[in-house]
Amino acid sequence: MSPHPPSPMPFTRTAQDAPPGPPDRFSQFGQPGPSTRPIRVMVVDDHAFFRRGLVSVLDEEEDISVVSEAGDGEEAVRLATEMRPDVVLMDVWMPHSNGIDACPRIREAVPHTKFVMLTMSDEESDLFDALKAGATGYLLKEISVTELPRAVRTIAGGQSFINPAMATKLIGEFAELAKQESAPPSRPDIPQLTPRETEVLKLLARSLNNREIGERLFITENTVKNHVRNILEKLQVHSRTEAAIYAVRAEYVSGY
């Protein structure tokens, strides 16, 4: 993890929605919608001191109400079912049950709840696992006290909020997946066959029987059988048909 993480990226608001003060500095997809009642938030973190700090920051906001706190995923599931929060602000790694595992369990009990992972982890695997689990926000704990309420409002409005460094990794992963999907299918690995076994495999792929292969190569039929047995073993297939298919895919028969 870099000792100097990048500053969050800017996003835009309409003049009507924008609160006074400096512009938000996080990646955002879309605009937060207006709220007609306080946003009900549950804070989940196993470090009590850090958790209380988050609660004190959010409690200062008129449009945000912290309705419960939890110290691990199991407690979060139980309290979320009772309190039905709009937004769960949750750490990734906690004892007993981590935040990623808790997300789908809470969503099943309270379908409207949205999840924001607030964590020290900048690992791509944690980001992808969180998104798969249903999180719509992923923030690193470097977030400032002024930016946290804005992030909660945006998530509650149905939009996504991702730390800029993590958003860059996410975009890079999508680009790599797109490249893989557009690439031609890869040729299978070719085991080390002897020159004679390669000749037998090419003829086998032409649907020749053992006698015909022997006549072509001037070897006995029993010798052909031995070569075929070795070929099946090396290719890890169970029949001549499978070997023939493998030969075609591996281009053993190209131009033969």
From TrEMBL:
Q: Which residues form the Response regulatory domain?
A: 40-156
Record organism: Nocardiopsis codii
Designated name of the protein: Response regulator transcription factor
Q: Which residues carry this modification: 4-aspartylphosphate?
A: D91
Chain residue ranges for the region called Disordered: 1-37
Keyword list (alphabetical) reads:
DNA-binding, Phosphoprotein
Q: Where is the HTH luxR-type domain?
A: 186-251
* Keyword flag Phosphoprotein: yes
SMART domains the UniProt entry points to: HTH_LUXR (SM00421), REC (SM00448)
Q: Identify the InterPro entries for this entry.
A: CheY-like_superfamily, NreC/VraR/RcsB-like_REC, Sig_transdc_resp-reg_C-effctor, Sig_transdc_resp-reg_receiver, Tscrpt_reg_LuxR_C, WalR-like
Organism phylogeny: Bacteria, Bacillati, Actinomycetota, Actinomycetes, Streptosporangiales
